[in-house]
Amino acid sequence: MYIETSAPRTPGQKAQLFSKAITVSSPICVNFFYHMYGPTIGALNIYIVPSGQSAMGQAAWTRKGNQQNQWTKGQISVNPSQQQLQVDTFYALICNP
Length: 97
What we know:
CATH topology: Jelly Rolls
CATH architecture: Sandwich
Shape: globular
Largest sheet: 5 strands, antiparallel
Order of helices and strands: EEEEEEE
CATH class: Mainly Beta
């Protein structure tokens, strides 16, 4: 997923990416890479959402603002659940310059 944060973007614009629902029967680690560089970077949040639930609740992982001009590995642990989950829900937000 890519969201451009320079003009003509405006503060508050968002991008979202949802995985398909999966069943987590044993602990798993979700690995991903992110690149957040520059003065207009907002936030990147990852949520673990039970399938069919619309409310995202509290982020399982978050980064805000400039994180250097490089790709960085991130990871979160997901514990087993009796429900299907959308594990890698990414939510990016543009902030004010």
